[in-house]
């Protein structure tokens, strides 16, 4: 049991590190009290509970292994099952010390593979972004700023352009350069409101080129977005494409200080 426990802990650690679906956590968020209906395949609730625990652990491990396969690491499922069975039977082929040493080495290999994949993906995303930006830059009406931001004003709007301390209200759609959509206020049927200095630099700079009622397309390089780290839904070194409609501009009250930058949030990817 001691060895099995260590294996389970490692699987959980790797699954979290590799963003594997947390089946066990998701399935046990709400814990029912009392008795549940016993499936006809089982004699009683105790049998069903034991099976459910095993099934949940199995799914959890399966998701973790699938994530590792994406890194080029493939484990022998038969040996995995044999290790669990032998541990329960008290007939492990490895001592506790050997289990610990083997898992430490394995964890190191997984981390190295994950780092290598991240660097590879970042390089590929950089190349794809540069190619997309070069093509976009040739389109009619596209301008490039000294920071590397590319933009095309589709409708200028009227009034004053927003400043850093203004609150703006926008509708927008965000995609990767391959057209994959990662965020859209249109889909949520709710415009986004924020201080202009409280978002990624590409937005802070880009929205100053239009006024209330204006529309703009932004092609934002990684340095003005999420850089080499990325965020959920946005891979490392991604060039981002935004179509933005500036619905309103609300000047800041006198003496209002700049807010602290909010954390990155998948629900509104323009945020820092």
Automatic annotation (TrEMBL):
Residues 1-25 form the signal peptide. Residues 165-250 form the PPIase FKBP-type domain. The gene is fkpA. Residues 253-272 are annotated as: Disordered. Pfam families: FKBP_C, FKBP_N. This is Peptidyl-prolyl cis-trans isomerase. PPIases accelerate the folding of proteins. It catalyzes the cis-trans isomerization of proline imidic peptide bonds in oligopeptides. Keywords: Isomerase, Rotamase, Signal. InterPro entries: PPIase_dom_sf, PPIase_FKBP_dom, PPIase_FKBP_N, PPIase_FKBP_N_sf.
């Amino acid at each position: 049991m001691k060895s099995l426990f260590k294996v389970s802990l490692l699987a959980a650690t790797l699954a979290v590190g590799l963003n594997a679906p947390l089946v066990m956590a998701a399935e046990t968020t709400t814990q029912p009290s009392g008795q549940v209906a016993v499936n006809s395949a089982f004699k009683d609730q105790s049998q069903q509970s034991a099976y459910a625990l095993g099934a949940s652990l199995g799914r959890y491990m399966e998701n973790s292994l699938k994530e590792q396969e994406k890194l080029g690491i493939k484990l022998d499922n038969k040996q995995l099952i044999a290790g669990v069975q032998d541990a329960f039977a008290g007939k492990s082929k490895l001592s506790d010390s050997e289990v610990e040493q083997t898992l430490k080495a394995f964890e190191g290999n997984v981390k190295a593979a994950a780092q290598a994949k991240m660097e590879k993906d970042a390089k590929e995303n950089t190349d794809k972004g540069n190619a997309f930006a070069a093509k976009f830059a040739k389109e009619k009406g596209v301008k490039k700023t000294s920071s590397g931001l590319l933009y095309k004003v589709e409708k200028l709007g009227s009034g004053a352009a927003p400043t850093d301390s203004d609150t703006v209200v926008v509708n927008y759609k965000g995609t990767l350069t391959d057209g994959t959509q990662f965020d859209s206020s249109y889909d949520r049927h709710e415009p986004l409101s924020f201080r202009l200095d409280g978002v990624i630099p590409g937005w802070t700079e880009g929205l100053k080129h239009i006024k209330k009622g204006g529309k703009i397309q932004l092609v934002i390089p990684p340095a003005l977005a999420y850089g080499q780290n990325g965020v959920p839904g946005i891979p490392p070194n991604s060039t981002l494409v935004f179509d933005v409609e500036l619905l309103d501009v609300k000047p800041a009250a006198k003496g209002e200080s700049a807010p602290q930058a909010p954390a990155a949030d998948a629900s509104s990817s323009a945020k820092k």
